[in-house]
Write a structure and sequence with these properties.
Strand order of the largest sheet: 3-2-1-4
CATH architecture of the largest domain: 2-Layer Sandwich
Number of helices: 6
Order of helices and strands: HEEEHEHHHH
CATH class of the largest domain: Alpha Beta
Number of domains: 2
CATH topology of the largest domain: Beta-Lactamase
Shape: globular
Strand content: 15-25%
Oligomer: single chain
Structural class: alpha+beta
Radius of gyration: 17 Å
Distance between the termini: 36 Å
């Protein structure tokens, strides 16, 4: 049985599940993710942790996964709002989405704070709003963006947004922005 044979609506995300599995295989590190899908019974958000199973000699022998339905938690509304906002970047409306939560799997070579800045910038936040959200000064945020531009080879915020979306960063949530309520 493969991900494409799952006898439920999760089969819509089979290709995304395979990509996550490949990240675990390639990095031999766990991948923590949020899976958001509109089932016939309504929206669901699942928290998934996929971990490598290694033999004593270090060789990968499989992947172990744990999944928890968090649809009835306070975090659910935040996840749903994020997904609805991000729909404008996704070509198919109501398509299942997987967000990766591990910093080490980020497609951009940025620090934790820099990743948070880019995450918020993509979602239309101003420098002042980013500073407020991260509890930092606007000047600090501006200095982060100078460094981000250098690291990503960009000249302006529009290029940062384009590079971030094209790299897959849209489907990554920096760990310091995940609401733990």
């Amino acid at each position: 049985m493969t991900d494409f044979d799952i006898p439920c609506e999760a089969v819509k995300a089979a290709e995304q599940f395979r990509i996550l599995d490949q990240k675990v295989v390639d990095s031999t590190k766990a991948v923590l993710s949020l899976y958001i899908c509109n089932y016939s019974s309504g929206w669901k958000t699942l928290l998934s942790n996929k971990m490598p199973i290694q033999q004593e000699n270090g060789e990968l022998s499989g992947i172990y996964g744990q999944v928890m339905d968090i649809s009835n938690t306070n975090m659910f509304n935040w996840c749903l709002s994020l997904n609805q906002f991000d729909q404008k970047f996704i070509s198919t409306k109501d398509k299942p989405v997987i967000y990766i939560l591990n910093q080490e799997h980020s497609p951009l070579p940025l620090s934790k704070q820099q990743q948070a800045c880019v995450f918020l910038l993509i979602r239309g936040k101003s420098m002042k709003e980013i500073a407020t959200t991260l509890n930092l000064s606007v000047r600090t945020i501006e200095s982060y963006f100078v460094i981000i531009k250098l690291k990503l080879g960009c000249n302006n915020k529009s290029q940062i947004i384009e590079k971030a979306i094209n790299s897959g960063f849209l489907h990554y949530i920096p760990e310091n922005l995940i609401p733990l309520e």
